[in-house]
Design brief:
The complex is a heterodimer of chains A (252) and B (326). Chain A has 252 residues and is mostly helical. Chain A contains 11 helices and no strands. The chains are: A mainly alpha (252), B alpha/beta (326).
Chain lengths: 252, 326
């Protein structure tokens, strides 16, 4: 545990250099998104969704989606770079760290980034009066789980490639469809059957549904367990795959 | 680390190192990658406090051996003990006592010189305050004091190499592994690195290095092995290797005419061995001046004559051949 924490500490020291510039975008991004989608598009969706004003309906989805973006951002180019370009992972592997410490410490940092961006978004959402339940802070827990469910398999993917052109493919064929078809901007029920299954299969939709229940104060019922189980499955499978990829790269 | 009082001979290691007194002990060590055998059954013993070198052309298996010793590459077969421990089981415990300077610098270019050392020290469980203290000492030791708070990115190759060496010392290791420590450096930078490594050796730190620079091996190594094709083809101190595999002196003869081969027959019998190169003929002899006199007695008049002492390079080329390995 201490070993993994020392890896987390390394990433935090690295982050300290850029946190000011990233802090700004962390606040500006949700502000622009809420204004653009919620207020702008919301004006045309006067009837709301499921009896909820559009802005209030979309905000929890955007929080989960932000968690996804933050996780993907940290789990793609940095991971590729640490293997291929600046080879930081190899330096760590020469120290008395185990593969699980190197991977776990970096994932912990990714979750830290997810938490920071999600918290900023939640604060903006609160300022716009879109939170309707005392359960709303639970979206941060959901964001962390979504973050890991996305980051772990993405790290596994990034650890298995040697060129960043594969990351573009990931962005186009996994991240973009997941962002569009996971019930963030409109209910998945309005999608054709086939695309609905895209939402069901990927982790984001499950997080969006849980976040929405938290900010609107609706009881998730037994579906809540299904969502949680799917997210945990993505976390576990992603972590195991990432660990085996890391092992193959670092212990040869 | 305090460079003047290095704890390599301290108490932590004494309980670990095996009875025969070798810090690194390998018997029949093999590393295969699929069908390719990188290391093909080598026996090595590195003693405490010595500087031990692996020499060999590219692809000889030096780096694979170093990675096995560094406990980041499990042996395929054979015995390997480091500090009396088994790398297959005790990787992190062994790595805690190793310092590794890899062939290619893997510093964090965005962090400062100091941060590179302090964050790395944390991987060894060293407390923050102690990490900063050691970082300051090491920065001074590798003469980077003026650049301590500069990012690594703008540093020259020589400075980065020194920082990598400093990083390898941050845990006060018992063994320092250096994979081609001066490859790609300019002469000034190389000499500075050698001088620092020599000081480490004087402090009793065990150095294990790979190189294909013969002058580096002669300068630094007490003992070395020459590897070729995954095997050890010779072992000993630089001096004994030269005595065993070469002659005391070498006479280099250049003839004006295009083909040097024509002279090979006429030179037969002078010295122990004769080698014909495209541009010159090498005579391996005990006494260079006597050999030169004999050449003149045979009425051969080379355009150039050079008598020099035999070096490790002659041993190396004799053992591993002149064919280019890529």
């Amino acid at each position: 545990m201490a070993a993994a924490l020392s890896v987390l500490e390394y990433h935090l020291v690295n982050y300290r250099r850029t946190w000011q510039s990233s802090a700004l975008s962390t606040l500006v991004m949700p502000l622009l998104t809420v204004l653009g989608f919620g207020v702008g598009v919301g004006a045309y969706v006067s009837s709301g969704v499921d009896g909820v004003p559009y802005l209030d309906w979309i905000v929890p989805g955007l929080i989960a989606s932000t968690a996804l973006q933050a996780a993907v951002g940290e789990a793609t180019w940095p991971v590729l770079s640490y293997f291929e370009w600046i080879k930081v992972y190899f330096a760590q592997a020469a120290a008395p760290l185990r593969v699980v410490d190197i991977l776990g410490g970096h994932l912990a940092f990714m979750l830290f980034r997810v938490l920071v961006t999600s918290t900023a978004f939640l604060a903006v959402a609160a300022a716009f009066g879109t939170l309707h339940s005392w359960w709303a802070p639970l979206t941060l827990v959901v964001s962390l789980v979504v973050g890991l469910a996305v980051a772990a398999p993405t790290v596994a993917y990034a650890a298995g490639i040697t060129s960043d052109s594969y990351l573009i493919i990931l962005m186009r064929f996994a991240v973009l469809p997941m962002s569009l078809f996971s019930g963030v901007f409109f209910p998945v029920e309005s999608l054709p059957e086939v695309l609905r299954w895209v939402a069901y299969a990927f982790p984001l939709w499950h997080g969006v549904e849980l976040s929405r229940d938290a900010t609107l104060g609706t009881a998730p019922g037994w579906m809540g367990l299904v969502h949680a189980a799917c997210l945990v499955a993505w976390c576990a499978a992603g972590f195991l795959l990432a660990h085996s990829r890391f092992r193959r790269r670092l212990v040869i | 680390m305090d460079p003047t009082n290095h704890p390599a001979t301290g108490s932590t290691g004494t309980t670990l190192h095996p009875a025969e007194g070798s810090l690194i002990h390998a018997r029949g060590l093999i590393k295969r990658f699929g069908d390719f055998t990188a290391v093909d059954g080598i026996d090595v013993d590195v003693r405490r406090g010595e500087a031990f070198g692996f020499l060999g052309p590219n692809g000889a298996g030096k780096s694979s051996t170093m990675r096995m010793i560094g406990c980041v590459s499990p042996p395929t077969a054979g015995v390997l003990e480091i500090l009396g421990l088994d790398p297959r089981r005790d990787g992190p415990r062994i790595r805690a006592k190793l310092g590794v300077c890899p062939q290619l610098d893997n510093l964090d270019l965005e962090l400062t010189v100091r941060e590179n050392l302090t964050t790395y020290a944390r991987f060894f469980g060293i407390a923050r305050k102690e990490a900063r203290r050691r970082a300051d000492e090491l920065i001074e030791f590798v003469q980077l004091t003026e650049r301590a708070d500069s990012k690594v990115e703008p540093l020259s190759g020589g400075m980065r190499r020194r920082l990598t060496i400093a990083r390898a010392l941050v845990n006060q290791p018992e063994i320092v592994l250096l994979d081609e420590p001066t490859t790609g450096l300019d002469p000034q930078a190389r000499h500075l690195v050698w001088e620092r490594l020599f000081r480490l050796k004087q402090q009793g730190v065990t150095l294990v290095l790979t190189t294909h620079y013969m002058d580096e091996a002669e300068q630094l190594c007490d003992r070395l092995v020459v590897m070729d094709g995954g095997r050890i083809v010779a072992e000993g101190s630089p001096r004994t290797l030269i005595e065993r595999y070469s002659t005391r002196e070498v006479v280099e003869l250049r003839f004006d005419t295009a083909g040097q081969e024509a002279y090979a027959d006429k030179l037969a019998g002078i010295g122990e061995r004769l080698e014909v190169l495209p541009d010159r003929i090498l005579l391996y002899v005990a006494d260079g001046d006597a050999a030169t006199a004999e050449v003149q007695r045979r009425s051969l008049s080379p355009a150039g004559v050079l008598v020099r002492r035999s070096g490790l390079e002659d041993v190396f080329l004799h053992l591993t051949g002149r064919t280019l390995v890529d």
